[in-house]
């Protein structure tokens, strides 16, 4: 039983591994060195595929994603900077292509909303704790020798 | 009173959740608003589908508003849209230019022969290079270009009679009003 399972696992690993190799082989780009390839991979990982919108350009098998990868590669070869390449795509496909949306009026809530909620939560905690300790302080002063704590003042 | 705080927080979350559902049913998740609206259409020079020796350019099309409809024989939604173009295409009042996107010319021609040709002119972008400049990411897409070559409206996805009535016709009417 265990052997069967192990063999199945091995086959699965092999299939996944070959799938990855295949994906590389289908779409070969003539990188001149490792640095260029790393830069390309990095850049396409930060760009969103428009067709299957939860995938980035590096991972997507969509036809358009392949075209855009080639376009990114060509722009790199033309000596464009990462920012210029991103701008090229934003001009055509809007900020949506960026996985990291820029900080601007329409994205303020997105960027700082979680922080605001966290701060609001912290404020609630601070206020609650202060109120409780204030409510308990006089009670514990009066019954300093009383061993059983008094819960009736508890607001919660 | 403060015992009710969690309850109100819960109600707030329910309201937020409901709003999210409502918003998503009203908006197409896949639709990416084009940054090209009210910007000049990108320069293009594309061969005609039926006569590749002839090239159509943005400059040659200036002077009159027209519609560019991105289609392909491999595109399923284009097949759904096609009857609408056949019946409504002539009635919107501006020329309809077909933009054959990443297609085999022979297959595109056969497709038009089989289903009918609603276009006055069909240009072919076999590699899909120019389509990137247009921000095309899924056929069918339709662009309304005004007489000055500025993109005024874009529809992503099939044109339906409702969309034509509600969005396209008012956009074309607005162009008419501007024209002297």
Compose a concise summary of this entry:
The complex is a heterodimer of chains A (156) and B (180). Chain A contains five helices and no strands.
Notes on the structure:
Chain A: InterPro entries: C-type_cytochrome_biogenesis (IPR051263), CcmH/CycL/Ccl2/NrfF_N (IPR005616), CcmH/CycL/NrfF/Ccl2_sf (IPR038297). Chain A: Belongs to the CcmH/CycL/Ccl2/NrfF family. The complex is a heterodimer of chains A (156) and B (180). Chain A has 156 residues and is mostly helical. Chain A has helices spanning 2-26, 34-45, 63-77, 82-93, 108-142. Chain A is flat and about 80 Å long. By secondary structure, chain B is an alpha/beta fold. Chain B folds into two domains: 1-30; 33-178, Glutaredoxin. In chain B, helix 3 (105-115) links the parallel strand 4 (96-101) and strand 5. Chain B is elongated. The mean pLDDT of chain B is 90. Chain A binds chain B through residues 50-51, 53, 63-64, 67-68, 71, 90-94, 96, 155-156, and chain B through 2-3, 29-30, 32-36, 102, 127-129, 132-135, 137-138.
Which radius of gyration of chain B do the C-alpha atoms yield? Answer: 21 Å
Spatial gap, N to C terminus of chain B: 67 Å
Count of DSSP strands of chain A = 0
Radius of gyration of chain A: 29 Å
Features:
heterodimer; A: 156 residues; Helicase, Ruva Protein, domain 3; 0% strand; B: 180 residues; alpha/beta; 5 helices
Question: Secondary-structure map with pairings?
Answer:
The complex is a heterodimer of chains A (156) and B (180).
Chain A: H1 2-26, H2 34-45, H3 63-77, H4 82-93, H5 108-142
Chain B: H1 5-26, E1 45-47, E2 55-57, E3 66-71, H2 76-88, E4 96-101, H3 105-115, E5 121-125, H4 129-133, E6 141-145, E7 151-156, H5 161-178
Parallel strand pairs in B: 3-4, 4-5
Antiparallel strand pairs in B: 1-2, 3-6, 6-7
């Amino acid at each position: 039983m265990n052997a069967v399972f192990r063999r199945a696992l091995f086959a699965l690993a092999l299939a996944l591994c070959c799938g990855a190799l295949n994906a590389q082989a289908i779409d070969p780009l003539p990188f001149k060195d490792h640095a260029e390839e790393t830069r390309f991979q990095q850049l396409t990982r930060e760009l969103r595929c428009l067709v299957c919108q939860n995938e980035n350009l590096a991972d997507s098998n969509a036809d358009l994603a392949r075209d855009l990868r080639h376009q990114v590669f060509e722009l790199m070869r033309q000596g464009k900077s990462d920012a210029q390449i991103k701008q090229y795509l934003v001009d055509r496909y809007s900020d949506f292509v960026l996985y990291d949306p820029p900080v601007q009026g329409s994205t303020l809530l997105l960027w700082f909303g979680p922080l605001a909620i966290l701060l609001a939560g912290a404020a609630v905690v601070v206020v609650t704790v202060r109120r409780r300790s204030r409510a308990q302080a006089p009670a514990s002063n009066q019954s300093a020798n009383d061993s059983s704590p008094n819960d009736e003042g508890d607001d919660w | 009173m403060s015992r009710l705080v969690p309850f109100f927080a819960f109600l707030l979350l329910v309201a937020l959740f409901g709003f999210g559902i409502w918003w998503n049913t009203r908006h197409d998740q896949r639709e990416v608003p084009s940054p090209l609206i009210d910007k000049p259409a990108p320069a293009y020079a594309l061969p005609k589908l039926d006569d590749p020796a002839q090239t159509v350019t943005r400059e040659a099309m200036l002077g009159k508003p027209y519609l560019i409809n991105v289609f392909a024989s491999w595109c399923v939604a284009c097949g759904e849209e096609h009857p609408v173009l056949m019946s409504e295409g002539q009635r919107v009042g501006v020329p309809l230019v077909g933009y054959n996107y990443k297609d085999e010319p022979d297959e595109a021609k056969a497709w038009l022969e089989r289903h009918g040709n609603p276009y006055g002119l069909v240009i072919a972008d076999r590699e899909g290079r120019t389509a990137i400049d247009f921000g095309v990411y899924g056929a069918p897409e339709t662009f309304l270009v005004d007489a000055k070559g500025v993109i005024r409206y874009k529809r992503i996805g099939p044109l339906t009679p409702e969309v034509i009535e509600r969005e396209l016709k008012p956009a074309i009417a607005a162009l008419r009003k501007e024209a002297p």
